[in-house]
Amino acid sequence: MLQVSPYAVYLYDAVQVYLKALSEVLNEGRDKFDGIYLISKILGKSFTSMIIFNLISNSVHYNLKRRLLGEMKEMKNDFNY
């Protein structure tokens, strides 16, 4: 399983939030270099973070691995008479 650094997920989240705000600014015909206005588009908004999906994915992977290892131990015990 591919392990993803939490820092990569944080970066992904930051870029997504920035691009969404930038898109709003450009759609309104405002200056993309107006940082104060751009930040105002970010503040107070909620979004779904990818860190949640990463944590869920890692948890599922860990639980599946633990379950499979448990089943393998049971099978080994079944063959030991």
Number of strands: 0
Cα-to-Cα separation, first versus last residue: 35 Å
DSSP helix fraction = over 70%
How many structural domains can be distinguished in the coordinates?
1
- Mean pLDDT level: 75
Helices, by number, come to: 3
| Classification by helices and strands | mainly alpha
How would you sum up the global shape?
rod-shaped
Q: H/E order of the elements?
A: HHH
Q: What kind of sheet is the major sheet? A: none
Q: Which percent band covers the strand fraction?
A: under 5%
Low-pLDDT sequence parts: none
Summarize the structure.
This protein has 81 residues and is an all-alpha fold.
Topology (elements, then pairings):
Layout: H1 6-27, H2 35-42, H3 50-79
Helix pairs in contact: 1-2
Question: How would you describe this structure to a colleague?
Answer:
- The protein has 81 residues and is mostly helical.
- It has one domain (6-79).
- Helix content is 74%, strand content 0%.
- It contains three helices and no strands.
- The model has no long low-confidence stretch (mean pLDDT 75).
